[in-house]
Amino acid sequence: MSIQIISKGPFDGQKPGTSGLRKKTRVFMEPGYLECFVQATLNAIGGAEGKTFVIGGDGRFFNREAIQTMLKMAAANGAAKVIVGQGGLLSTPAVSNLIRQNKTDGGFVLSASHNPGGINADFGVKYNVSNGGPAPENITQAMFEQTQTISEYRILEAADVDLSTLGFAQIGEMQVEIIDPVTDYQALMAQLFDFDKIRALFAGGFTMRFDAMHAVTGPYATAILEGALGAPAGTVINAVPSEDFGGGHPDPNPVWAKVLMDEMMSDTAPDFGAASDGDGDRNMIVGRGAYVTPSDSLAVLAANAHLAPGYKAGLAGVARSMPTSAASDKVAERLGLGCFETPTGWKFFGNLLDAGKVTLCGEESAGTGSDHVREKDGLWAVLLWLNILAERGQSVGEIMADHWATYGRNYYSRHDYEAVPVEAANALMQGVRDQLDAAPGTTHGGLVITSADEFSYHDPVDGSVSHNQGLRIGFEGEGRAVLRLSGTGTEGATLRVYLEQYAPAEADHGLSPDVALKAVRDAVLSITDMQERIGRTDPDVKT
Ligand code: VG1
Ligand code: CO
Asked: Could you tell me if 162 and 12 are in contact, meaning their C-beta atoms sit under 8 angstroms apart?
């Protein structure tokens, strides 16, 4: 076995986006591409000599090959040990947990999350640091600089490791430990939640459907829901991870999880429905006839988390990403909890969690999590909901109605415009940026603008500042619109428009979101000149 030092070839600088580096699978498969990005990452963290890592992925096409390459590179770079999930599988929250539990130096997740998988679809690599969370901005910046200057990568010429058998293997001087992907994660969940109470709920006839969307949560949900908690077989559907997620988008929202949504809105709906994404860090929550927006879910979890054993002492605070609705702020305000607004992307929650300033975090894109790991965690959110349902003995619909009657309702919707030509998307954003200063006091679509700015985040823990994190426009009557460009797309630009309208506790909470948000949407179409700028006003996906 010999270490090969291979020159970088045509690899160009690459900047990780909102959540790691995401590209077309064929790009990652080009000779040297994955290798250069991995080497740049190892260089950026000061090398791999003597270090320990966790590696696993969501099972998409190219997952196994990429892991073999990365193991040989870790060995050639002097790493002491790598922990890998059996079959190459690990969910993002499971990786975060394993990094923390084993005190490793970091870990890699191979996933493009909710993006589709396959040779003609997407692949991705995320690097997480020793606290278990996504690499913070100073590290992603160092990675980017390395990708621009890298001249060679190191790889061991060695046979592939058999990832199908649990136990230890050796590759050069490096030890590889192949572990069951579910065991440690399940043990953590059993500590946080009242499994006996949830088991009794199912034993009493409570029904549920969990759509794993052919992605990584299948084995986790089957073991925990149908195994440990005794839910009937068939509760978990699409439970076997497939390389192309059954040809769909493993994105847990009413559009991509339509089959589940249709069932939940039908006469034969089970009591509770949920879904999760490709790498298991997101969740969708839906009751019988009652879809719960991710922003509302965060607020309900914040108001009720103390009902679960892991949170019975109460919460230190709640953080939400800036585009997420202010529903959780209303809860924090009333309960006297810390309340934080961060840029999009889980990496911005890490410092707040490490400093003990917040216990729960959430994003409007269906990511919810707590200080139990340093990632969002889909199945965790589902189990917390189950624990709350078991304690309260009410339906999801009743819990939502009660929540709105207490805190008011933040009507909310995100409209995505996909594959917009990059120049047109940038021009639209710049057009709005140019109006920000003069906007307050002006009227658009019949609404008076009360505030307008571009969000900069000042991290209260380390003092770092992140600029250009989205355009915010506030309207009279607690309406709000946010505009930003996605950092995870792989084709053109994706423009995200986030619409919000608050209705106080005593107001009507039964409007359809489209109706409640019409005025804010009209204002956005006006201030962006959307038809002029991108030639359309109808979004591709509404969630
Ligand atoms: C999207 C979401 C964001 C999320 C990110 C990664 O980013 O909006 O909230 O953190 O995906 O999620 P963007 O830049 O496309 O809006 V995922 O599940 O990697 O893990
Ligand atoms: Co994800």
From this structure: no
DSSP element (H, E) containing 169: strand 167-171
Q: Do 409 and 489 meet the contact criterion of CB atoms below 8 Å apart?
A: no
Distance 445 CA to ligand 2 centre (A): 35
Quick check: helix, strand or coil at residue 391?
helix
Could you tell me how many residues make up the chain? Answer: 543
Do residues 220 and 227 touch, judged by C-beta distance below 8 A? no
- CA-nearest residue for atom 17, ligand 1, is 113
- Per the DSSP assignment, residues forming a β-bridge with 56 are 109
Distance of CA 19 from the midpoint of ligand 1 (Å)? 6
Mark the ranges of the chain whose per-residue pLDDT is less than 70: 1, 10
Query: Given the structure tokens 């986006």, which residue do they identify?
Result: 17
Gap between the Cα atoms of 470 and 486, Å rounded: 10
CA distance 370 to 368: 7
What domains lie within the chain, and their CATH numbers?
Answer: 2-180 (3.40.120.10), 185-407 (3.40.120.10), 409-542 (3.30.310.50)
Q: Which amino acid is at 171?
A: I
Ligand 1 in reach of 365 Cβ (< 6 A): yes
Query: Which ranges of 8-61 does DSSP label H, i.e. alpha helix?
Result: 25-29, 33-44
CA distances from residue 377 to 95, 346, 398, 467 in whole angstroms, order as listed:
11, 11, 25, 27
Q: Is 543 in the pocket of ligand 1 (CB under 6 A)?
A: no
| Helix, strand, coil tally for the chain in percent (to 5) | 35, 25, 40
Whole-prediction pTM value? 0.95
Looking at all shown ligands, the one closest to residue 217's CA atom is: 2
The encoded tokens of residue 310 equal 């892991």
Q: Which long-range contacts (CB under 8 A, 24 or more apart) does 530-536 make?
A: 530/428, 533/424, 533/427, 533/428, 533/431, 534/417, 534/420, 534/421, 534/424, 534/425, 534/428, 534/495, 535/424, 536/417
pLDDT at residue number 479: 97
Q: Check if the beta carbon of residue 324 is closer than 8 Å to that of residue 302.
A: no
User: Which of 325, 344, 346, 414 for mutating ligand 1's site (highest number of atoms within 8 Å of CB)?
Assistant: 344
Name every residue whose Cβ is closer than 8 Å to that of residue 154 and which is 6 or more positions away in sequence. 3, 4, 5, 6, 39, 73, 76, 77
* Residue carrying the six token digits 């969002």: 376
What is the structure's pLDDT at 15? 84
Q: Measure the CA–CA gap between 489 and 492, rounded to whole angstroms.
A: 8
- CB-based contacts of 337, cutoff 8 Å, min separation 6: 302, 315, 316, 317, 318, 331
Per the structure block, which two tokens stand in for 491?
A: 């084709």
Strand partners, 282: 367
Beta strands 479-485 and 493-503: pairing type?
Answer: antiparallel
Question: Which pair of tokens denotes residue 214?
Answer: 């052919």
Q: What is the pLDDT of residues 203-219, one digit of tens each?
A: 999 999 999 999 999 99
Catalytic positions, written as ranges: 113
